[in-house]
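W.,

You were right to be curious about this one. When I first looked at the sequence I had no strong expectations either way, so I just let the prediction run and decided to look at it fresh. Below is the sequence, 458 residues in total, followed by the output.
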Amino acid sequence: MALWKGRFEKELDKQVNDFASSLSFDKRLYREDIAASIAHVTMLGATAIIPSDESKKIAEELTKILADIEDGNLQFNNSCAEDIHSFIEQELTKRLGDLGKKLHTARSRNDQVATDLRLYLRKEITVMDRLLKDIINTLCDISEKNLDTIMPGYTHLQRAQPVTFAHHLMTYSAMFGRDLGRLTDCSKRLNECPLGSGALAGTTHAIDRDKTAEMLEFNCPTANSLDGVSDRDFCVELASACSLIMLHLSRFSEEIILWCSHEFKFIELDDGFATGSSIMPQKKNPDVAELVRGKTGRVFGNNLALLTMLKGLPLAYNRDMQEDKEAIFDSVDTIKICLSTFTSMLKTMTVLKENMRRAVAKGFINATDCADYLAKKGVPFREAYKIVGGIVARCIKEGITLEDFPIESYKTFSDVFNQDVYHAINLENCLNERKSYGGPTGTSVKNQIQLMRLMSKQ
């Protein structure tokens, strides 16, 4: 029976009931709904709003309902309840009769669902936090093994300057570190308790909102009852954080896809994290990375869906807000499976160091170092840039590298050139001389690894 039955003389149309029901997706909130209900009824007993012995009986029965759901003895299938909140309350009333009907004293489904959702997302943030720390530590582990693995750095997908594979990977570690910070910030703002806000204007009962907030381990009650039931900023904020996590995973996926192609061949994916073709027996496809890249769109879409759902709503609660759950649940679920699978893929991939080193030798990625060589000898950098550009053009015509360009030829471009230019443009030296903070030297990357490991322990 509908919780709101009494005002209406006619049963809800079955099609409308099916259309409006949210039990199929909000049933995952059953633990949070029961926890919040136990806190609420305990507070009702402590404040003598209902007798203490009745409060205890209701709390005990709610605990039994939780156990029955966990054990599979109580199923959601074929329930006539429209949502998880009515399901729990109906089951409680079925078991306790009129006593069960006292649970909803001084409470509305509006503050109930807002509380449940915050409890659930708070728990999920801790899971995502752990998964982000796992991928950060995985990147640190791989980087420690590749401090000297030189590879081309790219701009415009063109070979630009020498870096190391470790330096490149720590870039993504930094991105995921910022994601950790966003989740932490989101969790702080989320961790306020709406319970006691009622439908929108609180209650005439002498409730103790601080007690329920404390029992549920919230930092404090929400300060405004209207805001308590109508706020979904925490959903949007988390959806936005999820979007950035997926953005970073998608960029990383694109590079994985490039790196394992024969055109690059910088890495080899483990057979357990690649698939083949139904017609081309030679194929080894990076499906995990492609799926992560593809799933990014749905997380972006969920973020936009939440913003659009909220943008025109007057205060306080509107049924539109039921749409918050599927969107944020899907984003959280997608983040968890993508992070977990992607990290496992990284842990099992093989780094092809020799191929990276061969790629570094091509593309004149030491040209800037050649210009810097002239600048350090007093040549204005813009003039040095032009001189080296001419040298590169000559090398391309002759099919040779800067390292192979004769010193006599260098001197035709500038008398400043001496034999020591070859030391300056040696690829390893080009890398090791980039000692500025945050750069690709082994010492610098070790520092980056240390910083990220410290962050992952917080």
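Here's what jumped out at me. The radius of gyration is 30 Å. And, maybe more interesting for your project: DSSP finds 19 helices and six strands in the chain.

Coffee later to discuss?

I.
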